[in-house]
Amino acid sequence: MTYQPNPQRYEEMHYRRCGNSGLVLSAISLGLWHNFGHVDDFANARKLIQTAFNLGITHFDLANNYGPPPGSAEETFGKILSQDFGGFLRDELIISTKAGYRMWPGPYGEWGSRKYLITSLDQSLKRMGLDYVDIFYHHRPDPETPLEESMMALHDCVKSGKALYVGISNYPAEEARKAIQMLKELGTPCLIHQPKYSLFERWVEDGLLDVLEQTGTGCIPYSPLAQGLLTDRYLKGIPNDSRVAKGVGFLTENHLTSERLDKINKLNALAQKRNTTLAQMALAWVLKDSRITTVLIGASRSEQITDAVNSLHHLHFENEELSTIEHILKS
Ligand SMILES: NC(=O)c1ccc[n+]([C@@H]2O[C@H](COP(=O)([O-])OP(=O)(O)OC[C@H]3O[C@@H](n4cnc5c(N)ncnc54)[C@H](OP(=O)(O)O)[C@@H]3O)[C@@H](O)[C@H]2O)c1
C-alpha cells in the first residue's frame, strides 16, 4: 500500500528552536537504536516511522552501529524512505546519524579520527540511500585523537555537502565547551548536543545545560524514559516483548531493583493524579526546561509514539508536583 501521510500532521506538534540556529525540531523525536535492525519485524518498523511522521515528528535519529547487526537500522530506514518518503517528503525530514562507537574491525573503525568519521558517514549515506544527512554527530569523545581533528572532520563533512549541520554526543560539559568553540571558529556552528537525560539520569544538570545555553547550542536528551523503566512497562513484572526480556541491549533485569521499582510505582501514582501515563510525565518533566529542544524517544509499538506525543497536552507542573518528584527520587 502506498503511504499517504496525514495532511494534518503539523497541526498538533510543537516545534522548538534548536539553540540559536535557524532550525526547529519536533518536541518529540524518534530514535532507531532498537526495533529497526534486520532481526526486527520490517512491517512494524515501517508502521513506527509512518505513525511518527503522521503525528508531526520530523526528526529521526540513527547511528552507524544501530541494528543488530550494526548498520542494519540505517538499511531498514533507507528502505522505508525509498518506499514511503521518496521525492519531496525528504525535505520534510531531519535525519541524523553518528559515528564514534565500534563499527568495523581494525584501528579505523571507531573513535574520532578523520579517517573514521568521514568514511563512516560515506557508509551511512550508502546504507540509507541518501545524498546528505541533516545532522552528523561525533557519538562520543575520543581521549586519544586531538579534538581539533575530530571537529575539523565534522566541519569538512558540512563543507562537502554530506551533512547540513553537526552535533556532538556524550561530551562532558568542559569538553563540549571546547568542541563548540572550535566548531564556531571553523565556521560550522555546533547545532546540538545529545546527552543521556531523564528523571533517573541527571548529570547534565551539573554544568552541561549551562554550557549549551551560554553557547546557543540545542539539546536532545536520549533515553528520556530510561529505556522503558519510566513507563508502565515493568509495573507488573517483565513482559515477554519488553526490552529487558528481549535481552538485546544494555537494559537488564538487574536494573529492576526493589528500590527502583518502588520509585517507579510512586512516580506512576503521581502521574495518575495528573491524569497522564508515567511515560507522559517523564517526557514532560524533561521538556519543561527551555534549554531542551526535543526529547529523543524509542518505541517498539506505534501506541507508544502516540502516548509520547500526547504528553505535549500535559507539560505544566505545579511546584508541589515537582517537589513530590524530588522527594520520590531522593527517598
Ligand atoms: N547518543 C547516544 O549515545 C545514544 C544512546 C542511546 C540512545 N540514543 C538515541 O536515543 C533513542 C532513544 O533511546 P531509548 O530507546 O533508550 O529511549 P527511551 O524512550 O528511554 O526508551 C524507549 C523504550 O521505552 C519503552 N516505551 C517507550 N514509550 C513507551 C510508552 N509510552 N509506554 C510504555 N513503554 C514505552 C519501549 O520499551 P519496549 O521496547 O520494552 O516496549 C521503548 O523501546 C535511541 O533510539 C537513539 O536514537 C542515543
Question: Care to describe what's here?
Answer:
This protein has 331 residues and is an alpha/beta fold. It has a single domain, classed as Alpha-Beta Barrel (TIM Barrel), CATH 3.20.20.100. The protein has 11 helices and 10 strands. Helix 1 (42-54) packs across helix 2 (72-84), helix 3 (114-128) packs parallel to helix 4 (147-159) and helix 5 (173-186) runs parallel beside helix 6 (208-215). The structure holds NADP nicotinamide-adenine-dinucleotide phosphate. The site of NADP nicotinamide-adenine-dinucleotide phosphate has 30 residues, from strand 10 and helix 10.
Low-confidence sequence ranges: none
Name the structural class. Answer: alpha/beta
Dominant shape: globular
CATH second-level architecture: Alpha-Beta Barrel
What is the number of strand segments? Answer: 10
CATH superfamily name?
A: NADP-dependent oxidoreductase domain
Strand order of the largest sheet: 9-8-7-6-5-4-3-10
* N/C terminus separation: 52 Å
- Our Rg estimate from Cα atoms comes to 19 Å
Q: For this structure, what is the CATH class?
A: Alpha Beta
Helix share bin: 25-40%
Succession of helices and strands: EEEHEHEHEHEHEHEHHHEHH
> Oligomeric form of this entry?
single chain
Give the distinct bound molecules: NADP nicotinamide-adenine-dinucleotide phosphate
**Beta-strand share of residues:** 5-15%
Number of helices: 11
Average pLDDT for all residues = 97
